[in-house]
Amino acid sequence: MLVLPKLQLEDVFACAQCGYCMKRCPVYYFLGWESTSPRGKIFALKEILGNDGRLDEQSIRKLGKSFSTRFFNCTFCGFCREVCHVEIDLLEIWSKVREILYDHEVVPESIIKLSETVKKSKNIYMMDNLSRTDWITYTGADVNFKDSAEVVYFVGCITSFSGRVQSIAQAVSSILNSANEDWTLLKDEWCCGHPLALSGAIREARVLALHNVEMIESTGAKKVVTGCPGCYLALKHEYPRLLGKKPRFEVLHSSQLLDTYITSGKLVVPKADITLTYHDPCELGRISGVIREPRVVLQSVTDTFIEPEYFGRESICCGSGGLLKAVNPSLADNLTQRRYGMLASTNAEVIVSACPACVQALAQTATAIQNGKRVIDISQLIAEQLGLM
Q1: Secondary-structure breakdown of the chain: helix, strand, coil percentages, each rounded to the nearest 5
Q2: What is the CATH number of domain 6-107?
């Protein structure tokens, strides 16, 4: 049975069809079809929704993948929710619809492939999960594996497996060591489950969440730090809902930890004669509200910090979110190029972000452009300034 929960049903019919969301939607900016905009998707739902919240299964199957693709041609950047004058939680609607579509196998083939990959290999790359810690050998990082510790560093799939950003893990590790933190890596870290949650595979995401929470809590750690906004969102916000209880540890993004270290004087970062700009990752800034902390960290490094066009809660998505790269890679690339252009136009020497997926996408675009800017993670910047890398 295809049923939209009562709260989301009420939100669908509360939509005033004003179109404010269309003006800010990065996907609509390029595709131009109203059917792919937030307003268009809400209109489509109204057409097939009954007053009891039942979705017309026959209509969905008749529309098939074309209907499904509307809801997966989305970066989950949250801008539509941010500007909604009726304060509709559009991200929650998109999540519930994806869950329904996944349960009834009406999703793009790439989403099925991705979810099967994560379920089988416990990472998004279909790699042997035993190789998750190979980055230690590649980077020469000084890491810890302990039975108990005060802090767990949750690395995440992208930072663990993608060679372009594995030095982010090296940077975070070196900073934890420099701060004399009692920390450890997990001996058997699995994907955080956020990609499965975005796929609509909620039951499967719950399995990963349960494993990771049990592994973390077995160490007695009071804090978990991660440099990935997707992992941060999963650990801090998705796990309590998936598991029906709040885990017994605090979750910090690496930028929050750096802010704490620098503000308290635990780390003293030398100033650099360098011009920086910063890209707010959607999942960290707009969705999770971590906006102030990265700026405190960056302004401890330089006196010349330039905000790009659209920043903070109004930051423009770089195209890496919502599994868009799996569903529509060319569209994702267009979004990346657009955002890179905004950041580069500041004339800053270095573009900084706080997300391995954002850094990877923006760096790839920079590499393809002659005289492209250097793109790095905030943890790499601090580790370099401290002479740790």
Answers
A1: 55, 10, 35
A2: 1.10.1060.10
Residue type, 315: S
- pLDDT surpasses 70 at 52: no
57 and 104 in contact (C-beta within 8 Å)? yes
Q: How many CA within 13 A on the CB side of residue 40?
A: 18
Domain ranges of the chain: 6-107, 124-259, 265-385
**Token pair recorded at residue 63:** 């529309």
pTM comes to: 0.95
- CA atoms of 37 and 45, how far apart (whole Å): 12
**Residue 256 and residue 336: Cα distance in Å, rounded?**
25
**Residue 250 is inside which H or E element, if any?**
strand 250-253
- Choose the CATH number for 265-385 among 3.40.630.30, 3.40.50.740, 3.40.50.1860, 3.90.550.10: 3.40.50.1860
The reply to whether domains 6-107 and 265-385 share a CATH topology is no
Q: What distance in Å separates the CA atoms of residue 286 and residue 371, rounded to the nearest whole number? A: 30
Question: Is 3.40.50.1860 the CATH classification of the domain at 124-259?
Answer: yes
Interatomic CA distance for residues 329 and 30, integer angstroms: 13
Side-chain-side CA neighbours of residue 112 (13 Å): 12
Residue range 334-346, pLDDT digits in tens: 999 999 999 999 9
Strand, helix or coil for residue 377: strand
Query: 195: which DSSP letter?
Result: H
Percent of the chain's residues with pLDDT above 70: 97
Please, what sign has the CA dihedral across residues 296, 302, 303, 307? negative
Task: Copy the structure tokens of residue 66.
Answer: 């074309």
DSSP 53-80: SBB-HHHHHHHHHHHHHHHHS-----HH
User: What is the rounded distance in angstroms from the CA atom of residue 322 to the CA atom of residue 26?
Assistant: 12
Note the pLDDT tens digit of each residue in 248-273. 999 999 999 999 999 999 999 999 99
224, β-bridge pairs? 152, 251
